[in-house]
Amino acid sequence: MNRRKFIKKGILGTAGIAIATGFYTWQIEPFWLEFVHRKMPVKNLPDQFIGKTLMQISDVHIGNEFDYQYIIDSFIKAQKLNPDFVVYTGDYVSYENEQQFAQLDDVLKYTVRGKIGTYGVLGNHDYGEEWSEQDVADQITNQLEQAGIQILSNNSEKINGLNIIGIDDYWGLNFNPKQILSQQNKNEANITLCHNPDVCDLDVWDDYEGWILSGHTHGGQCKPPFLKPPLLPVKNKKYDAGEIDLTNGRKLYINRAIGHLYQVRFNVRPEITVFELAKT
């Protein structure tokens, strides 16, 4: 093979790899949902909840950026797992205008609900433009609650000794974690929903012990193998995805998101997490 043919084949091969990778990141991985199954050891967990399942769904992002029939199909798959609890950790829409309300209603016909309880918190995108439109947040909250998702805004729900705590969004209009965290008891079983994991670094937790379930980062959506994702919408860049031990009796889990702001993912598959509750 002469030099010219060698160079030509190399260029064609490189172009082929680039096209295949581009197609994969655009049309394959954004819709390649992974159900991640994990144990969740909870301090002070009541015996009646040992072995129960808690499903986390985060960052649904209904809007115009991708075909959200995939979200409906994913919800139908998730329903078949028959979870005991379902929690949603924010960003139900990618808000542009009132069209997203109708789109959200289309998806909420297939809401995944828990046999025992279904809870959620708002994310920054649920507050509309520049995260500053209370009427948008109110409308989305109403739609979610009509679909059977109890929205927790700096308050909690106690279920026979298990506390599900909801902190409103860090970038939203109603962020007030002290309001609820100051009331919590470390001798009880606690699970906190908080869209943005940067809240974990604020001086608001006092002697809280328990889990914190977040989303927001999407795991970066694109990540080089063996490296950290280059783009993360958080101050603390260690908060990308998965389980993180915060010490002091706190553990954080960051869900990689089921939806996406833009239809592109590489090495960061969309996720629904299924936890099995256990005693520590």
What does this structure look like?
This protein is an alpha/beta fold and 280 residues long. Helix content is 23%, strand content 24%. The chain has helices at residues 3-28, 69-79, 99-108, 134-146, 177-181, and strands at residues 34-42, 53-57, 85-89, 117-121, 150-151, 155-159, 162-167, 189-194, 210-214, 242-247, 250-254, 271-279. The strands form 2 sheets. A 6-stranded mixed sheet has the order 1-12-2-3-4-5, covered by helices on one side. Strand 6 (155-159) and strand 7 form a beta hairpin. The radius of gyration is 20 Å and the shape is globular. The termini are far apart.
Strand order of the largest sheet: 1-12-2-3-4-5
Query: What fraction, in percent, of the residue positions are helical?
Result: 10-25%
How large, in whole angstroms, is the Cα Rg? 20 Å
Overall 3D form: globular
Strand content: 15-25%
Low-confidence stretches: none
Total strands: the figure is 12
Q: Please tell me the overall pLDDT.
A: 93
Q: Whole-Å distance between the termini?
A: 65 Å
Largest sheet: 6 strands, mixed
Count helical runs: 5
SS-based structural class?
alpha/beta
Quick overview:
This protein has 280 residues and is an alpha/beta fold.
Give the SSE layout.
Blueprint (H helix, E strand, L loop, with lengths): L2 H26 L5 E9 L10 E5 L11 H11 L5 E5 L9 H10 L8 E5 L12 H13 L3 E2 L3 E5 L2 E6 L9 H5 L7 E6 L15 E5 L27 E6 L2 E5 L16 E9 L1
Parallel strand pairs: 1-12, 2-3, 3-4, 4-5, 7-8, 8-9, 9-11
Antiparallel strand pairs: 2-12, 6-7, 10-11
